[in-house]
Design brief:
Number of helices: 4
Order of helices and strands: HHEHEHEE
Distance between the termini: 50 Å
Structural class: alpha/beta
Number of strands: 4
Low-confidence stretches: 5-13
Radius of gyration: 22 Å
Mean pLDDT: 82
Oligomer: single chain
């Protein structure tokens, strides 16, 4: 009932350290260092940070044509989810990128409403799949709540 040392943990890696799922951890122990985070620009959690607007979006706009050729189909779990929808479902695809999920929605006999913050990517989605894609920040869409059967936002 107390007083003793904790039981020894043996592992093949020799460190005795275990990850969240119990697997033996390999390599040196990693240390974290606290950094000072900048103050929030807005109290509104739905406000896109300026650093994202100024940098991330510019990158996506610049690489849209190349990126389009590296993303060509829905991920298996996304495809499975979309195929499980009732035919005729209305699906909001927020951050649709080049529209790679639109064919899976169409194969499920459903309707995609795709949007992306990058105009070049939204244009590619519209031109490639004949969808009515539009440009919008997924935090600020002009979409009315309560009318969609599903919404996806896939990185």
């Amino acid at each position: 009932l107390g007083g003793g040392s904790p039981p020894a943990v043996s592992s093949s890696s020799g460190s005795g350290r275990r990850g969240p799922s119990g697997q033996a951890l390999k390599g040196p122990e990693q240390r974290t260092t606290a950094i000072e985070a900048p103050q929030a620009e807005s109290e509104n959690v739905l406000s896109t940070p300026a650093i994202e607007v100024e940098n991330v979006r510019k990158v996506y706009d610049a690489i849209a044509e190349h990126w389009n050729h590296t993303r060509y189909k829905a991920w298996p779990k996304v495809d499975e989810f979309l195929k499980g929808l009732q035919p005729g479902s209305l699906v909001a695809d927020l951050g649709c990128g080049n529209g790679k999920n639109i064919p899976a929605v169409q194969e499920a006999l459903s309707f995609s409403v795709p949007s992306d913050a990058s105009e070049p990517l939204a244009r590619i989605a519209a031109e490639t799949f004949g969808a009515s894609a539009f440009v919008a920040d997924c935090l600020h869409t002009p979409l009315r709540g309560g009318i969609f059967d599903a919404a996806i936002s896939i990185a």
